[in-house]
Amino acid sequence: MASEPSDKSRTVALTLAALLGPFGAHRFYAGRTESAVLMACTLGGLGVWWLYDVIVVGFGQFRDEHDRVISDWEPKPGERENALPEGVLDELHALRSEVAELAERVDFAERLLASRAPDEVRRIEPS
To answer: Is residue 2 located within the same domain as residue 28?
Structure first.
């Protein structure tokens, strides 16, 4: 048995179990795909398996794919395993700056065009 709690949210698991439990949505969320497929095929064991899972998830005893208990309603954000590399974050910041500058230029051009008098606007007539 694993001693640390799962990084999955008990709130999400219970919501999925209550709403989409007969289709095994909470088991897909927990990473238990084999039993989730079986649960979906039997419609939650004709409701019995689904009701059992709702109770187990509600009491905080449901386990994820790594046999860790999904007990925390909202898991504490720890060290991010999927954190982006520093170079990607730098590129993202540079891209945001460029987009903000382009938005300012478009806004300026729109204000400049809107300030022109209608008689100054050249109309092109088909020949």
So the answer is: yes
